[in-house]
Amino acid sequence: MALKARQSYRFGLYRLDAGDRLLYRNDELVALPPKVLDTLLLLVTSDGRVLTKDEMMKQLWPDTFVEEGTLTQYISVLRKALREHGSWIENLPRRGYRFTAPVEEVSEQVAELRIEEHTRSRTIIEEDTITDPGRIGRFRVIAAGLCVFVVLAVIAGIWINRRQAFRKSFSSVAVLPFRTVSDSRDEYLADGITEALITRLTNLKELRVVSYSRVRQFKGSTIEAAKIGQQLGVEAIIEGTVRVASGRLRITIQGVDTKSGYTIWALDRFEAKPERLLDIEGQLAEAAAQRVRGQLSASERLLVAKSRAVNAEAYDLVLRARGADPDTAIPMLERAVQLDPAFADAYGWLAFAQHKSYHTWLAGPETLRQAISNANQAISRDPNALIAIRAVTQIQHSTGREMEGLFLARRALDSHPDDLDAIAAAAEAYFRTGLYDRAIPLYEKALAAEPTSAEFRSQLARMHLFLGQHKKGLEAISPLPPSRAGVFGMLLYAETGQMDKAIQFARGESARNSLGFIAYTQGWVLAAAGDQAGAKEMWKGSAIRGEALLLKNENPYAHAFLATTYAQLGERQRALDHLARSLSYDPHHPVFLFFGVRTRGLLGQRREALHCLRAAIDNGFFNLPMIDYITQPKFVPGLQEEPEFQVIRADLARRIDELRVRY
After folding, report:
1. Model confidence at 269, in pLDDT bands (50, 70, 90)?
2. What's the predicted TM-score (pTM) here?
3. Which residues pair with 203 in a beta bridge?
4. 36 and 98 assigned to the same domain
């Protein structure tokens, strides 16, 4: 009697016969199409490992082109077949699927003859009711046909129901950050494609599209797409993948109905060489728009699908440069504007990177002048280029033109009320002009959209600190550990007597390389804790690092901060020399004049400090809460006691009230 091995897998009430591709529930056959059973077998034999959709599709259809939506439908059929245990197939959004039930592998040696006898036994039993062998054969054919019909009807029913249920158009949508399923170095492509799709869909009237800056917090998230959609308050979600292999770019997208959680459509047909990216973006946007909104008019198709007249290599360079440090980004962006002198975003990002280099003391005034020129070039080509407006807003602060920065930031916010970058830029502009009542709600809105942002938490904490609202400031940074609470979190801890947490930041890893305001306040915390030697060491280290940077690049901000640092160390002449050097670049710069307030006050020159304060305000330094905080006796002894200080303060409060009426 010949024997053969029969492999099967048991999980709960179910047994999956791997050899015959049959699924049983308590010995009752569960009718499923062969490919659906193959899908189940693949999941069951994965040992609890997450299987990516790409991996599953390659194994199930190695030589056939199949859309991702087919796999999604098979998973849905499997979940229905498993009844109350459908949750055993776990969906990990933008990753894949995992089978979570405990699986027992069973290998049996079975007599082949016994199987045949069992078949004969069934035939004999059937003969009790169907005696005609011809009728038996016909019955089997009919029964098999009915099984296939039922299965196909179930699948077709699911498909038809979904098509009918989701044939409506949607009034709101969010495009989640696309995933890369190839090299992580291609993430810049996925980010660029996501942002481009959002920008194109935004052109459709009566369709609310969530801005990229709001959805970027979900990059790499494991939260289900439908739940993200509910959180964002939209009716539909679009998600996708990007793969680069063998010199080809391939993009897949799918739509999810937020209310039901169903995948309502999937497209897997966008493939071309990477240099054709702009064309693919247009095709992608048109296909997505048709499925979100239904039939498009000719003008709507033009709005979403028209390829931008941009050099492909320049576009790729801009996408690469956006997330890079200034030293890496600037050469790439300079090349981009050479390749395409009409590309507004290339100029805007170049201005942004150049200003960042200047503001962090890595470059001098010439780089700032280049940033100003490039920002103007960007706006002259596209007055609504958001990155250019952001760059100009920051440049206005660095050049001491706070009011012009406020005007531009407000314009950006009016044009892009839901864009996180526009919200943050306006919040910063309101902060710098003393309009904290306008800035705080904007930062709170930004934080609600991106709750994990340490930057937004720190900025919110900064304003509450300056206003003396220590409890609210601590609430803003409460999710962060002391080591990540930032300099303003450190000061809040110190102000509320939590010196252990404040010192933890002051002596942390970042303290070894800190500069400027951070080093100054870290030293103050150490001094307040009784560690005068540690404070002096902190300030001296900051001065040495600042001087070293000045040897590479002359920078007026570096001179201004060094003036305050040397004043704190009691080195009068060095402090005054650096203050004079900073003001030599612009004697009317409000920020440099305010540094003069601190420097002169620390040196005991109160009359000169008050003169600097009035000049700073006359030239646009309106940040009254910051003035109140920085000039406290523990920072600048005796200055607030001067009667003239109170007169200056009252005059500034009146000016801020007038500004509030205008903005």
Report:
1. low
2. 0.66
3. none
4. yes
